[in-house]
Specification:
This protein is mainly beta and 357 residues long. The protein is built from two helices and 29 strands. The longest helix is centred in the C-terminal third of the chain and has 8 residues. The two termini are 33 Å apart.
């Protein structure tokens, strides 16, 4: 079981776009530090983390039976200037998805963000996903291999510090075993006053087996969804309809989705403190997303190229800061007092599927 840091920028192999084939990706002149971190296990599982791309896990391969299967999809340009939010497992912090109109009020102060969504109106996905993480080291794990990275707003994204109500530190540990990648996130407040945050992950999952994304079965433990207008919640939660109901593992088919699902079932954790919240099934195995109780919303998203499917665990919905401030609603938006910390856990695991489905 190893943790290997490669600063050479050499070519690596990541999952291809179709048919389960692999494709070599070369580092281009993106200006990013080419350092890669590779985790591996004795059973052949492997993960590649790209610190300069927001500590993004751009490649994940897990063991199912005698096979090593790709779980995470990255685009061909991931090492050559590709978008931080179109590859791997982007980390969305200190908020996931959009803040409406790129501005908000907190504790009597107005804050202005830089619009960066496709419409040029809203601010999308926080500061951590497109910022190089420069502090990382091998971590301690009971089994497998792991690495821990640290992002601090004031040190890693100082230009954004005035856009947020205070400083925060996010510590993320990727722990790899043969069948799973566990992500443990801790947010702490080093500032002298309360500071808010939300957190999300945006994994792009490869289709399990040799089939296409359209042929995959999808199960998501959500009974409702936030009604959106222009990608922003109207503050209304509706029961899942035919398009968004994934409680019985239907095939994805030709659905086009970019929705925030909510109203998850009551939390009943397993022995590890986690509960199955979503599943992507293809062939004879499934990718299972397991979470602790902190993750209240799940975004489902079909990229335009349909080479992958995103199932995104969030601690709060899109535009949660406005719903909290304007409406006084408890939607999972969190506030840490000075010196306080919070920890949440998400795991991506592969499991065999019975022959009868």
């Amino acid at each position: 079981m190893t943790v290997y840091v490669d600063s050479s920028g050499r070519r690596i192999t990541v999952p291809g776009l179709s048919g389960g084939a692999d494709q070599a990706h070369a580092v281009g002149k993106s200006g990013r530090d080419p350092t890669l971190i590779r985790l591996s296990t004795e059973g052949g599982a492997a993960a590649t983390i790209y610190p300069a791309l927001g500590f993004n896990c751009i490649d994940l391969r897990l063991r199912i039976g005698e096979r090593i299967v790709p779980v995470i999809h990255s685009e061909p340009d991931v090492l050559a200037g590709g978008s931080p939010t179109h590859n791997g497992i982007p980390i969305l912090f200190p908020w996931p998805n959009r803040i409406a109109e790129s501005r908000y009020e907190w504790d009597g102060t107005d804050y202005q963000l830089t619009a960066n969504d496709p419409d040029g109106r809203h601010c999308l996905h926080g500061f951590a996903c497109d910022t190089p993480w420069t502090r990382f080291q091998p971590g301690d794990a009971d089994e497998g291999s792991c690495v821990t990275g640290v992002f601090r707003i004031s040190e890693d994204a100082p230009a954004h510090l005035g856009q947020w109500p205070g400083d925060l530190v996010l510590t993320v540990t990727f722990a790899l075993t043969d069948q799973a990648l566990k992500i443990t996130s801790t947010v702490s407040n080093p500032d002298d006053h309360p500071v808010p945050f939300g957190l999300g992950f945006h994994p792009y999952f490869s289709p399990p087996g040799a089939g296409s994304i359209e042929e995959c079965g999808v199960w998501v433990d959500a009974h409702g969804y936030w009604r959106l207008e222009g990608c922003i919640p109207t503050r209304e939660v509706l029961p899942v309809d035919r398009l968004r109901d994934f409680r019985s593992s239907p095939e994805l088919g030709d659905r086009q989705l970019d929705d925030v699902l909510t109203d998850l079932s009551r939390f009943y954790p397993g022995d590890d403190g986690l509960m199955d919240r979503a599943r992507l099934v293809g062939g004879d195995f499934a990718m299972v997303m397991r979470c602790d109780s902190n993750w209240r919303d799940i975004v489902v998203f079909t990229p335009a190229n349909r080479a992958s499917f995103a199932i995104e665990p969030y601690t709060c919905p899109t535009d949660a800061i406005h719903m909290t401030v304007d409406d006084g609603r408890d939607v999972g938006w969190r506030v840490l007092d000075s010196g306080e910390s919070w920890t949440g856990v998400v795991e991506f695991r592969v499991d065999e599927v019975a022959a009868n489905g």
